[in-house]
Amino acid sequence: MTKTPPTDESRRVRAEAQATKERENAQAWVDHDNEARAVEERTARLRALRLAKEASDAEAAAVVAAEKAAEKAAKTARAAKRKKAEPGAETSAKTSAKSSTKSSAKTTAEPGAS
Question: Is residue 6 part of a domain?
Answer without folding.
Answer: no
